[in-house]
Amino acid sequence: MDKKIKEQDLTGIVALLVHAAKIDEKYTEQEKSMLKSFINSLTDNSNEIDKILSKAENLEENSNQLLEFTNIIKKKDVEFKSKVIKELWKIIISDKKLDEYESNLMRRICGLIYFPDKLSAEIKLQLTNK
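and the corresponding structure tokens:
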């Protein structure tokens, strides 16, 4: 596990990503693969990836608010927040469609973690131009 992030915190962050993946009511294998890659980037133990994703899916399924997941991210530095925002955008635009619920979710998350909308828009633009 990355020295800066505990498994419990990572599970909460991934639950937020799962929520973003499910907001369009299509939770695809491609999105799951992206989530596993994100988890892998933050853990030293590749054997834990499926377990963390499963826990995160369960946590997201049984939660009715985003606040508990965003509090973890809010305490991190801008670099870490950027990494999470970038991953959220990757998941949201992976189906080549962006609806109002997804856009609204990103605005809410940025507000909750104190991440500048302008920076979020720049990250989204970089990803859509790839």
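(Above: one complete record from the training split.) The longest helix spans residues 7-22.
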